[in-house]
Amino acid sequence: MNAALPTPGRRGTTSLATCIAVVAVPLLAVVAALSVLQTRDQVPGLTGSFAAQRWVVWTCLAASAVVAEIALRPLAQFPQWRAAAGTAVLRNTPAAQQLAVSVTVPARAGFYEVWLLGQDGTSMISLGDLGAAHAGTFTLPAGVDLRFYSRVDVSLQPFNGSTVHSAVSVVRGSMPAAATGTASGG
Predict the structure, then answer these.
(1) Do 162 and 121 fall within a single domain?
(2) 51-90 pLDDT, tens per residue?
């Protein structure tokens, strides 16, 4: 019996060129990206391409680490929200700080908006609207002082075109000292 050998280009077989393309193209893209980022001027204090590549890889891995998880709870003065709850997760990325917010809230007329609330209780920075699933990820403004803007607030906003807080806070939570840079170091 003669067993039929697969021929290149035949369905159900993989050619050597296809294998090389599948492996080599992504690998070349990574090498090219690391080559661009490995100059000594861009990575102060590091010498050699291997050190720079380790720095880039470590930076990318560290970027996925959570800086803080903030429990969001309803305020006592708004009993209609006592069943609402949520979580905010602060992360550092190579480009900026991000806050991912997810809340469990009832469907109501209007929309839910995420704010950073200042220590004075009146200063606020709008981060944006939560989507239909009541979740969203927001990039914090560059240079925001989390020692001052240390609370996360989610409000129910009416569809009225106003850009100010509605004064209806659904849930709120405070960032831990480690996230704001106020934790005492040993």
Answers:
(1) yes
(2) 443 444 444 444 457 999 999 999 999 999 999 999 999 9
- Residue 183 and residue 180: Cα distance in Å, rounded? 8
pTM of the entire structure?
Answer: 0.64
**Residue 20 belongs to domain spanning:** 16-62
Indicate the helix (H) or strand (E) that contains 66. strand 66-72
Q: Is 182 helix (H, G, I), strand (E, B) or coil?
A: coil
With contact defined as beta carbons under 8 Å apart, do 126 and 99 qualify?
no
User: How many angstroms separate the CA atoms of 40 and 176, rounded?
Assistant: 36
Which of 26, 47, 62 is the endpoint of a domain? 62
Give yes or no: residues 156 and 122 share one domain: yes
Q: What is the pLDDT of residues 95-154, one digit of tens each?
A: 899 999 999 998 899 999 999 999 999 999 999 999 999 999 999 999 999 999 999 999
Nearest to 144 by CA among 106, 89, 92: 92
The helix (H) or strand (E) run that includes residue 117 is strand 111-117
Both tokens of 170, joined, read 């659904």
Q: Cβ atoms within 10 A of the Cβ of 111, count?
A: 15
Final residue belonging to a domain, choices 62, 77, 95: 62
